[in-house]
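Reviewer 2 asked us to include a model.

Predict the structure of this chain.
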Amino acid sequence: MRKDEKTQIIESLAAQLKETPNFYLADISGLNAEKTALLRRTCFEKEIKLVVVKNTLLRKAIELNGNEEAALLFPILAGPSAVMFTEAANAPAKLIKEFGKQHGKPVLKGAYVQECAYLGENQLDALVSIKSREELIGDIIGLLQAPARNVISALEANAGGKLAGLVKTLSEKE
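Predicted model (structure tokens):
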């Protein structure tokens, strides 16, 4: 590979790293062509971009962006590496876990998710449990609605005697 081709790949990877906030590093070596095609298809369906890159080029792209936290992944950049770029923080972790149970690979090497580096396969369960932005918004909305629902249900359940007595007492105080 010529130097200008390498430079172009590094710049492309650096742009992808800036554009996509989360990425996972996985080992997919040992998968045959059929299983690799199935993995790529599954990634496409889940809106995950799967790219196999040379470790030195990925290292240079991370250095080009100047991201110190992502630089913590340098020790795991050995052997075959596939990079999974994603918007959803936990989608690749779920994919790696499900696909790995059935086919033995991919194996998580590390990840950079929500501005934190995760090293090693033992981090997979922690990455699966990370909630996506949409899930967090849903939880917050549920928490905000809970007190209002409790008041409304209490008023509806005891609407007969207590509500009338409360209104009568308030009107007598005036």
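The CA atoms of residues 134 and 140 lie 10 Å apart. Residues 3-130 form a domain with the Alpha-Beta Plaits fold (CATH 3.30.70.1730). We have added this to the supplementary material.
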